[in-house]
Amino acid sequence: MTERQSRPRNPPSWHPADPERDGLWIFTRLRDFVDDIANTSPARLALTVFASVCLVFTFLLSLPVASATGTGTPIHQALFTAVSAVCVTGLTVVSTATHWSFFGQLVIMVGIFVGGLGTLTLASLLALMVSKKLGVRGKLIAQEAMNNAGRLGEVGTLLRIVIATSVVIEGALALAMIPRFIILGEPFWESVWHGVFYSISSFNNAGFTPHSDGIVPYETDLWILIPLMLGVFLGSLGFPVVMVLQQNGLNWKKWNLHTKLTIQVSFILLAAGAVLWGLMEWDNVRTIGNMNLGDKITHSLFASVMTRSGGFNLVEQNHMESTTMLLSDALMFAGGGSASTAGGIKVTTIAVMFLAIVAEARGDADVKVYGRTIPQGAMRVAISVIVAGATLVSVSAFLLLQISGASLDRVLFETISAFATVGLSTNLSAELPPSGVYVLTALMFAGRVGTVTLAAGLALRQRSQLYHYPEERPIIG
């Protein structure tokens, strides 16, 4: 018998202590799976990560310990709440304050914080945790998630800055509100809990509240309202803008184009929204008609900030005028900044399309602003985001009209609020049957990951063409 033939009689080369055979093979397979998706489809990785996070929080909220009564929560309610928290929306089908136990509210708060980091950021962190390092593709994903805020070699540092910035801002907001809750008579630890919950909910533009009557009791308390507005506004600017402000302060000349457009359009929408909302509701006795001048101004400014993604409300949405609801629809659809905790089609998308219209009206060949030319690819992405968003809202509104039989203004308001991850509600969500709840759940998920993933996918799938077909201009307009 030859030596080759006698080898099988020897003991096998592996042994029980081999990590691959000792239970750790799961992590190896997971690492390979994440690497494979990251290298082939970043958009698919983002969707997979976000969907997995939503399922984990759905499971936690369905546990009996998560409800105040100690009984399990129906799956459609647990799923809706989990997706609403992770997608930082704020819509609810059950009362956050009365239905959920402390554990359930804690799960919701953690879901808000995790979801506020964003889809591509979560995908990058997963790749970093599993592979212990970010490859070139992983860095490209993370860089795209933060709107290319920095060089490729700095991505790991930027990811740490994102998390640190969130914690610092949320900590400052909590410290600002906790003393006020104590002064208002709440026990110390309850005040701490409410301060932390509201700080995370506001900065992540979630709109969840641990009080059964929301923030209505604080409608004239600027000590509570100002930190909430400040948190929502900072969160809606986006991490790339916040990092530029950290590095360059208020030096306008050192800001990049994204920061200039985001801040400028955000303030325009904030001012215009406050003025128009106030004018439309000035004499409405069901909202602010009987208030003094100072309170009317406070409510108008608060509504303008929250309508673009915050989700906190001081007045009953069903009591607003029809024109005010239409204004709210427009502001919600616009949303906040790119790579932020806000939803909507994003303010830079609006800016790019407005600049393109102005350039076309002037007969300019290029779209120019602040000494820069916006590339054609950016305008194609902007058009795609707007059309995709309008299509999602239209289809979902049609389905909800069939399911609920509610009026169009209520359905459209709830649909846009879900898509734009705002959280303002006409209470339609709580009235829907499970089929309608699932429609809104899918819309919240699509609104949080859809347009961002579409933009990222288009940006990462650029390819060179070796030929061009002859040009022919169709009649437009």
Structural write-up:
The protein is mostly helical and 477 residues long. It has 20 helices and 2 strands. Strands 1-2 form a two-stranded antiparallel ribbon. β1 and β2 form a beta hairpin. α15 (322-334) runs parallel beside α18. The radius of gyration is 25 Å and the shape is globular. The chain starts with a helix and ends in a 17-residue tail after the last helix.
The tally of beta strands, per DSSP, is 2
* Share of residues in strands: under 5%
Major β-sheet, in short?
A: 2 strands, antiparallel
User: What class, by secondary structure content?
Assistant: mainly alpha
Could you tell me how far the N terminus lies from the C terminus, measured between alpha carbons in angstroms? 87 Å
**In one word, what is the shape?**
globular
The total count of helices amounts to 20
Give the topology string: H per helix, E per strand. Answer: HHHHHHHHHHHHHHHHEEHHHH
Gyration radius, in Å: 25 Å
What is the arithmetic mean of pLDDT?
A: 83
Q: Helical residue percent?
A: 55-70%
Q: Can you lay out the helices and strands and say which pair or pack?
A:
Elements: H1 3-6, H2 25-40, H3 42-62, H4 75-86, H5 96-99, H6 102-116, H7 119-131, H8 136-145, H9 155-183, H10 188-203, H11 222-237, H12 239-248, H13 257-281, H14 293-310, H15 322-334, H16 347-362, E1 367-369, E2 372-374, H17 376-404, H18 408-419, H19 428-431, H20 434-460
Antiparallel strand pairs: 1-2
